[in-house]
Design a protein that fits this description.
30% of the residues lie in helices and 25% in strands. The chain is of the alpha/beta class. It has one domain: Alpha-Beta Complex (Spore Coat Polysaccharide Biosynthesis Protein SpsA, Chain A), CATH 3.90.550.10.
Length: 231
């Protein structure tokens, strides 16, 4: 069974300024195409039955680009996040019925990777799952994930050889945490997952291959150089 997906496209992309002062981050190009277009086509290839796209910053730009999703072979709806209140708030705003996938709108995954992640999650019967990548670098502040016996032990673990990728699977019990985070925003998805883990919920760590990300202005050149060189 293919899972519906929540795609978060609400962020400002402050580290990509001044580019994101005029353009929404998910619409910046990789290989000459908007990164969001590449992601949506991968979701279509994974037979995703429905995508809820959460917008915020420059929402009209993103909504105009995706339309109803038919151009990408998807059934798609959009919803606007009330403010920059974090990734968990964005997911809660989508009001998706679990289980579902959550993805960041500014990352390109290898062909077939999303479908493989989904199938692995379903086969494990876990409460949730986090995509992880093996990293050589252990730079301070890296989004490290501590893993033991195939399960996530701790998020925000910079000493770990694994780094988290913006791809999650959310089951019923994790969804309940996402929708009920206490305190003041921002409400982050990593906080919700850690609370579920600390409560004893099994959250799988599913290893994936390299991803392509736009984090800083230099990435725009690096990710498009091979394409531009071929013209």
């Amino acid at each position: 069974m293919s899972l519906p997906a929540v795609v978060i496209a609400a962020g400002v992309g402050s580290r990509l300024r001044p580019l994101t002062e005029r353009y929404a981050k998910p619409l910046l190009p990789v290989d000459g195409k908007p990164v969001l277009a590449l992601l949506l086509r991968e979701l279509a290839a994974a037979s995703c039955p429905h995508v809820t796209l959460v917008t915020g910053y420059l929402a009209e730009q993103v909504e105009r680009f995706v339309g109803d999703g038919s151009a990408f072979g998807l059934d798609l709806s959009t919803v606007r996040q009330a403010g920059p209140n974090g990734s968990a708030d964005a997911v809660a705003t989508a009001r998706a019925a679990p289980p579902y996938l959550v993805l960041g709108a500014d990352t390109v995954f290898a062909p077939g990777e999303i479908g493989r992640f989904q199938r692995t999650f379903e086969s494990l019967g876990a409460a949730g799952a986090v995509a992880v990548r093996r990293c050589v670098s252990r730079e301070p502040g890296r989004n490290g994930v501590s893993v033991r016996d195939g399960r996530v032990v701790k998020l925000q673990a910079p000493e770990s050889p694994f780094a988290g990728a913006p791809l999650w699977a959310v089951g019923q019990s994790v969804a309940a945490v996402v929708e009920s985070l206490p305190g003041k925003p921002p409400y982050e998805l990593s906080t919700a997952f850690q609370q579920a883990i600390d409560a004893g919920e099994p959250v799988a760590a599913i290893e994936i291959g390299p991803t392509r990300d736009l984090t800083a202005p230099i990435d725009l050149l690096l990710e498009n150089f091979p394409y531009l060189s071929s013209l």
